[in-house]
């Protein structure tokens, strides 16, 4: 039977029903480094509500991002695990910010207290300014080389080894975890450049992709699947989308346009400059899709919209439509080979509740009916 797992994200840098309105922006930034209005601060009360809503809505995992003004992912996880029962937490970490041995020790404590409900998302890059703020001045290629070593070290520590390590970026002697990890967590990882795909297929367990059109997403997925098979590795695959719903397709697009109705021109310029300076392959590809679809109200395929990409980097392509339409689009991506789907939106709390009520059950229903017809 086809199974799909749903993931969402906590707005740990702030939340709003609009994006790109610099006038009312209190200084918060998204994890991708582009301004988003924060009329809802990432207070402990609000993020706890988001986590509890995600658990109730049928999401298996909550991504806790890194970057900008995000609340620290490990700190957030240590609190949230005590206020939920079954929800898993995917903590995003950057190799340039925390040594692998230190991260592993912190992780093992949170994972122990949460009864193995914490996973790790290793994020290689980010906005250049953010990386520089952390003292990370490595080139793109060297960052991925370091990431490979970082993940190798984490895995050996999580597997309970005591070992020496002599790499280009890390040298360890007698490395081990004083508090063992019962079950080694899967390592989530993403990146669209050739070296990113090499690292992913060498050492990662879950490869994360930002959703695009069905055709372009398939091309990206197929390239990684092929590379993994050549290395006799079997990865899990996740695809990410924003979601905007409406009772009709027209109403859904009205809701989508409302989100960007207060965009400030300076924010658009900043996003463009950030994309150029970032140089990330995936970010640049989404930005190009947005530019090419501008005359078509940013619609790049049926129910797939790039309007948010004007302001957001990273996970910015949205599924827009009725719950039935969005569920059908999700199933199409599941059919490509994705067993995990990350869905989020603005404002996060209401969108998470709406997806749980109206979309997730439909996806499971469509898949179940199809399985019944095959019997």
Describe the protein in words.
There is one protein chain. With 375 residues, the protein is of the alpha/beta class. Helices cover 44% and strands 17% of the residues. It has 13 helices and 13 strands. An 8-stranded parallel beta barrel has the order 1-2-3-4-7-8-9-13, surrounded by 9 helices. The protein has a two-stranded antiparallel ribbon with strand order 5-6. Helix 7 links the parallel strand 8 (206-210) and strand 9. Helix 1 packs parallel to helix 12. The radius of gyration is 20 Å and the shape is globular. Residues 15-38 are annotated as: Disordered. One of its GO terms (biological process) is alkanesulfonate catabolic process. Residues 35-339 form the Luciferase-like domain.
The average pLDDT is: 91
The CATH class, by name, is Alpha Beta
- How many structurally independent domains? 1
Number of strands: 13
Poorly predicted spans: 23-36
Classify the beta-strand content into a percent band. Answer: 15-25%
What's a quick, concise take on this entry?
With 375 residues, the protein is α/β, with parallel strands linked by helices.
Task: Outline the secondary-structure elements.
Layout: E1 5-9, H1 44-57, E2 61-64, H2 73-80, E3 88-93, H3 100-113, E4 118-122, H4 128-133, H5 140-158, E5 163-166, E6 171-175, E7 187-190, H6 194-203, E8 206-210, H7 214-230, E9 236-245, H8 249-259, H9 265-278, H10 281-292, E10 299-301, E11 304-305, E12 318-321, H11 323-336, E13 340-344, H12 348-358, H13 360-374
Features:
single chain, 375 residues, alpha/beta, TIM Barrel, eight-stranded parallel beta barrel, two-stranded antiparallel ribbon, 13 helices, 13 strands, 44% helix
